[in-house]
Specification:
Elements: E1 15-22, E2 27-35, E3 40-49, H1 64-83, E4 88-93, H2 95-99, H3 103-114, E5 119-120, H4 123-137, E6 144-150, E7 155-160, E8 165-171, H5 175-182, H6 190-214, E9 221-226, H7 228-240, E10 252-254, H8 255-267, H9 270-273, H10 281-301, E11 305-309, H11 313-325, H12 333-336, H13 338-349, H14 354-370, H15 382-393, H16 405-415, H17 423-434, H18 446-449, H19 454-472, E12 481-489, E13 492-499, H20 507-514, H21 517-524, E14 527-530
Parallel strand pairs: 1-4, 4-5, 6-9, 9-11, 13-14
Antiparallel strand pairs: 1-2, 2-3, 6-7, 7-8, 10-11, 12-13
Helix pairs in contact: 4-11, 5-10, 6-10, 7-10, 8-10, 14-15, 14-19, 15-17, 15-19, 16-17, 17-19
């Protein structure tokens, strides 16, 4: 697979990037060709398999049967990618894996058996990626848009414009979830239909209220629907109106048209719905709950028309990869800085002192740059980027209590929404903050147990040691340190602290730095010498 530092060698050719979306109902593959000159991508191939990962046991765990279906599909997708010269595979798992107690075990199993690393994304991150995917395929005018994506286990509602996502929401109501929990009768009775609408309304209410609060009254608003449910309903409406078959991307239909289709479907037994040519057997089983969610959301948000987008999460994964590689810079300027924006937002929320965190970051980067092959061997700067985030959030635990604040920082970082970061990366950032002071990791620590792979643990040990040294030098509100000079002399690490003012007494910093001696000795078997 292609690495970030290899992009410079590929300026003369295009890159094939595959994205895999492991959903509640289906597992999807998309292969795109990224044009480095045009800074855009085109879709070359798509495939999907109805893996039904949302079929869980009584305890909410993913069943072995559903896991086997996904493993078989992923193995086939990987083989196709390898056979067709795909340079990079990016993956995401959504609500089914998020909510299952054995979700993490499933991800580890995929990694072990297939060598595929899957990013487990939060509901808000899923919404952000959907927005990026829609934005990549539709020309947004000077108005706001509400985007809805009805999945198997969750429904994402997004308020956005062409510059940024204004509100990102995710509700635990989806077509498969509704079908499994409430739809055992056929056809559906009037009472059951009313109950479902009430249940959906209650589930969507927090998301709808958040979007309504952030709507700009001066801007017009349009609705965009994406996902298999919306596309299937579009095809049914097209057929019901006796309109010629057409591409669904950009197709518009009225709420009245949707209600006509919904009324017909509710009266039909499932055996008859399965005979509809445009519906697969599995889509036929969940089309009614999906249509109820869409119709209820249009009611609650007061939309009489919507436009279908065929681009969503899978395309968003490609766009996000392009942003991370720096291929896209101007077109999605705000989104390309999403990591910085979300870190700054969380730091501000928890009252972190911006000047002091920037001071610590500066010192940490000096230490990082001078300790390559001493403290770390981070060749692609992946760990450095996570260190940057940790430097800005490591003290956020003081918002809870200054005593043992590193433990509170771990909890807050782990459970806050860091858009642009996977859950694995969020765990690493939280753990770097956790171990920047006091004791080193122990097997019994929950924070240490949350790190699965040897690579994750190595990054945490190395970057937390750097942060430990940098934070120990932050002893005053003002910035008194000009630079740090580090030298390795046999088994001794010499650290020279150079003040801005040659007359400045740095005894506080030197005493504090001495507290890092044991950590350096234990982790790197080096003696610390403070100059």
């Amino acid at each position: 697979m292609i690495q970030e530092n290899e992009l410079s060698n590929l300026q003369e050719k295009n890159i094939l990037v595959a994205s895999i979306d492991i959903g509640t109902n289906s597992t999807h593959l998309l292969i795109s060709e990224v044009n480095l000159d045009l800074k855009s991508f085109s879709i070359k191939f798509t495939d999907k398999s109805t893996t039904r990962l949302g079929e869980k046991d009584e305890e909410g765990n993913l069943t072995e049967e559903s896991i086997q279906r996904v493993l078989y599909t992923l193995k086939r997708f990987k083989e196709y990618c390898n056979s067709n010269g795909v340079n990079q595979i990016v993956t995401a798992a959504t609500s089914a894996v998020r909510e299952a107690p054995n979700g993490r075990d499933f991800l580890n199993r995929v990694q072990k058996e297939l060598g595929i690393q899957i990013e487990l994304i939060s509901g808000s991150e899923e919404a952000r990626l959907i927005y990026l995917g829609v934005l990549s395929g539709m020309a947004f005018e000077d108005e706001s848009y509400v985007i809805i994506d009805i999945g198997g286990g969750s429904t994402e509602l997004i308020l956005a414009d062409k510059k940024d996502a204004i509100a990102l929401t995710s509700s635990r109501v989806g077509a498969v979830r509704l079908k499994n929990d409430f739809l055992n009768e056929e056809p559906i009775s009037n009472e059951r239909s009313k109950f479902l609408k009430t249940f959906i309304r209650g589930s969507l209410e927090p998301s709808v209220e958040k979007i309504k609060r952030r709507l700009h009254k001066e801007k017009s608003v349009a609705m965009i629907a994406t996902s298999g449910t919306a596309i299937s309903l579009g095809n049914l409406i097209l057929s019901d109106l006796s309109q010629p078959k057409q591409k669904m991307h950009g197709y518009k239909f009225k709420k009245d048209n949707l209600e006509v289709i919904l009324e017909k479907l509710i009266k039909m037994p499932i055996t008859e719905i399965k005979k509809i040519p445009s519906l697969s057997e599995r889509r036929a089983e969940i089309i009614i709950p999906g249509a109820l969610i869409l119709n209820t959301s249009m009611d609650m948000l007061d939309f009489n028309e919507l436009t279908i987008s065929e681009r969503a999460l899978r395309e968003g994964l490609v766009v996000d990869w392009m942003l991370r590689q720096g291929i896209i810079k101007n077109e999605f300027n705000i989104q390309s800085n999403i990591r910085k924006t979300t870190i700054v937002h969380q730091a501000r929320k928890f009252g972190v002192d911006k000047n002091r965190s920037e001071k610590v970051t500066n010192i940490a980067f000096q230490i990082y740059d001078q300790t390559k092959n001493i403290f770390h061997s981070d060749t692609d700067s992946k760990a450095k980027k996570l260190l940057w985030a940790a430097c800005h959030l490591y003290s956020c635990g003081k918002y809870v209590n200054i005593n043992s604040y590193h433990k509170h920082s771990w909890y807050l970082i782990k459970h806050c929404e860091l858009l642009g970061y996977s859950q694995l990366e969020t765990n690493i950032i939280a753990s770097i903050a956790r171990y920047h002071r006091k004791t080193l990791p122990k097997k019994r620590h929950e924070s240490w147990q949350s790190l699965i792979s040897k690579e994750e643990k190595t990054i945490v040990l190395e970057m937390s040691l750097i942060l430990r040294l940098a934070a120990s030098l932050d002893q005053r509100p003002e910035n008194v340190i000009s630079s740090i000079k580090i030298k390795l002399q046999k088994n001794a690490l010499s650290m020279e602290i150079i003040p801005f003012n040659s007359n400045q007494d740095l005894l506080l910093e030197k005493w504090s730095l001495e507290s890092c001696r044991n950590a350096i000795k234990e982790l790197k078997n080096l003696e610390l010498k403070v100059v």
